Automatic annotation (TrEMBL):
Keywords linked to the UniProt accession: Leucine-rich repeat, Repeat
Descriptive protein name: Uncharacterized protein
Keyword Endoplasmic reticulum: no
Key word Plastid present: no
InterPro entries: Leu-rich_rpt, Leu-rich_rpt_4, LRR_dom_sf, SDS22/Internalin_LRR
Region described as Disordered: spans on this chain: 1-29
Regions annotated as coiled coil: none
Length: 337
């Protein structure tokens, strides 16, 4: 059979499924309950045994890239009743405005709702909002229209990884503090100028790339291990001195003007991966670029000998020796003057 085009097929679930498998955008169709249920059954995967061991259950449902718009039919199907064992649901790349059709999905562990038009984060309309009965660990809401963060309490104990990047968010996200067990948070590509995440005591990975941050004073710092602040407005590095467990730090394309700021990172003994390119203290248009690059690299490695990866390139032991010798030569030249 030759490659099908959307115009060649009727707007049925099976036809849309064929288009999806060929990497095309399916037709939009106002599915009725029967056709939607048929579509869901076709998109189930990851088979396992039921708790009794006598039956077969499916753990994953993929409804991604189906051009779904209305959630009315989805809500009528009552997914929690028809597919009570689902652990992974993908509804990405649709036109959905809410996820209330996921009501009472207590077994759900992983959700991908990226690339939709959702305004309210984790608004599932749980009948039983006891956090101990909810299993959701990972949620991806990137590329949506999030404005409401008022429905997070049911997920306060379970949720560990959250992606809300590319949502045009412009406030301090204080509402996320209720997610007390969050370990990984992606808030990149928003318009955030300050943060108030002081209660996220287990947060290890924070991606805040491409925002408008000048400082991270509003972040609980003692647990952070990986921090991406690329494309922000950071000037002062003294604020990072308390990040004792940090091992990866990206500060590319910020506003660090003084090389001496690097000294504030000297006591971060676990840090081995550092990125600093694109800052004013490196960019010196009037100087020879190669000379500036050599001086920059040798100076960083001498002051921060724990670094193994600098600006995404692995540092060899020979380079560290050269950095030490370079510093000694600089000292001798100063003494001879």
């Amino acid at each position: 059979m030759s490659c099908l085009q959307a115009k060649d097929l009727p707007t049925t679930p099976r036809a849309n499924n064929m288009l999806y498998e060929q990497g095309q955008t399916p037709n939009h169709t106002p599915y009725d309950e029967e056709s939607m249920l048929e579509l869901m059954r076709e998109r189930l995967s990851e088979v396992g045994l039921s708790c009794s061991g006598l039956g077969i259950v499916f753990y994953k449902l993929n409804l991604g890239r189906l051009n779904l718009q209305s959630t009315t039919t989805l809500s009528r199907i009552k997914i929690a009743q028809n597919f009570p064992h689902l652990r992974v649901i993908d509804v990405s790349h649709n036109e959905l405005t809410d996820l209330r059709f996921l009501s009472d999905m207590h077994s759900l562990v992983q959700l991908n709702a990226s690339n939709n038009k959702i305004q309210s984060l984790l608004d599932f309309n749980m009948m039983d909002e006891n956090p101990s009965k909810i299993s959701l660990i990972e949620a991806n809401f990137s590329n949506n229209l999030l404005t409401c963060f008022d429905h997070l309490i049911p997920f306060s104990k379970s949720l560990k990884r959250l992606n809300i990047s590319n949502n045009n968010i412009d406030h301090d996200l204080v509402e996320l503090n209720v997610l007390s067990n969050l370990v990984e948070l992606d808030i990149s590509n928003n318009r955030i100028s300050s943060l108030k995440l002081t209660e996220l005591k287990y947060l290890k990975i924070l991606n805040a790339e491409s925002n408008q941050l000048e400082c991270i004073s509003g972040v609980c710092s003692w647990s952070l291990q990986q921090l991406n602040l690329k494309n922000n407005n950071i000037q002062n590095l003294s604020q990072f001195q308390s990040l004792k467990l940090l091992f990866k730090l990206n500060l590319e394309n910020n506003k660090i003007e003084r090389f001496e700021e690097i000294n504030h990172l000297a006591d971060l003994t676990f840090m081995y991966d550092l990125s600093l390119l694109g800052n004013p203290f490196i960019i010196k248009p009037t100087n020879d670029s190669l000379e500036v690059s050599i001086i920059y690299k040798n100076s960083i490695l001498f002051r921060l000998p724990q670094i193994v990866i600098l600006d995404q390139f692995e540092v060899s032991s020979e380079e560290k020796v050269r950095a030490m010798l370079f510093h000694q030569q600089q000292q001798q030249q100063l003494e001879n003057k």
